[in-house]
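Researcher: Let's do a round of design. I'm pasting the structure tokens now; please hold your answer until I've finished.
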């Protein structure tokens, strides 16, 4: 309270003195400056950093039960605007790193932040075989520019059912290199989402999901397939299952040319490139079969 009153008194005194001098000598009016002194105390905001609990966000807590045993993935973290600039975000970041207990970790960094993460020593290794691309088409999507079922022979596209999950889990593991059964099940059963699975002679050869984002747009991910024609047919089926969407988001691998060509067929996408960073070593997957990442912020692939 004293600092606030003190600041106001100083400001009032300085302003009134300037006016007084100017009124006595009109020739000095333009040369007089309006000084003010602001005295501010450093804000002190008590806060606690802890892990998310079941009661906070139950859906997120479900995901913790299925992770790679030797890999942590760093996603987004945010601070409410009124608490920014108080070092809270950095404390969250450091607490998250401590949680990895020295194991390998990876994440996607926008180009403006990548060097900062590297210099910190937390993510010194850069993926040099590909970049991750965030793509967004802000307008209505016409899926007719993509290949349809008449472009493939002997392929069946089925809507997700629980009985298809074992085949999907096996295919997913062949692409990313480890098992994510619980994550896949949660992905397929998420509200406002659709999942389709491609089969040939009873064997899973690809699958994809589409879901509604918080902005009312459709987001495709994952989209995995043996080849580009299967991926394109799946993508068209996904888009057609979501009529009236307000744009399309899709996170792709920079080196997967067919995946990025799909977006060119659909319209001019706003694209932002990110670098894939690692803590100890690179993590390999069959990138030729990844046409869209499962989730840009919460999954390595």
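Researcher: That's everything. Go ahead.
Model: Designed sequence:
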């Amino acid at each position: 309270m004293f600092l606030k009153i003190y600041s106001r008194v100083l400001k009032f005194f300085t302003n009134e003195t300037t006016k007084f001098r100017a009124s006595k000598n009109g020739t000095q009016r333009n040369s007089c400056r309006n000084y003010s002194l602001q005295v501010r105390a450093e804000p002190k905001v008590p806060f606690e950093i802890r892990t998310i609990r079941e009661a906070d966000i139950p859906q997120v807590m479900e995901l913790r039960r299925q992770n790679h045993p030797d890999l942590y993935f760093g996603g987004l973290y945010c601070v409410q605007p009124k608490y920014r600039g108080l070092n809270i975000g950095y404390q969250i970041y450091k607490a998250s790193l401590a949680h990895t207990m020295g194991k390998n970790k990876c994440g996607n960094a926008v180009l403006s932040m990548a060097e900062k993460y590297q210099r910190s020593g937390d993510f010194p290794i850069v993926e040099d075989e590909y970049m991750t691309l965030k793509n967004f088409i802000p307008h209505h999507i016409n899926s007719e520019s993509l290949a349809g079922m008449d472009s493939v022979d002997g392929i069946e596209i089925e809507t997700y059912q629980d009985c298809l999950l074992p085949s999907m889990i096996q295919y997913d593991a062949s692409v990313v290199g480890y098992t994510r059964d619980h994550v896949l099940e949660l992905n397929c059963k998420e509200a406002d989402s659709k999942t389709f699975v491609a089969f040939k002679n009873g064997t899973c050869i690809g699958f994809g999901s589409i879901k509604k984002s918080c902005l009312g747009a459709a987001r495709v991910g994952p989209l995995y397939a043996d080849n580009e024609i299967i991926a394109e047919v799946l993508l068209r089926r996904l888009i057609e299952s979501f009529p009236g969407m307000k744009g399309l988001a899709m996170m792709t691998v920079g080196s997967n040319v067919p995946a990025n060509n799909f977006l060119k067929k659909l319209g001019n996408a706003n694209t932002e490139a990110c670098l894939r960073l690692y803590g100890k070593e690179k993590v390999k997957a069959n990138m030729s079969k990844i046409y869209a990442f499962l989730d840009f912020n919460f999954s390595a692939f």
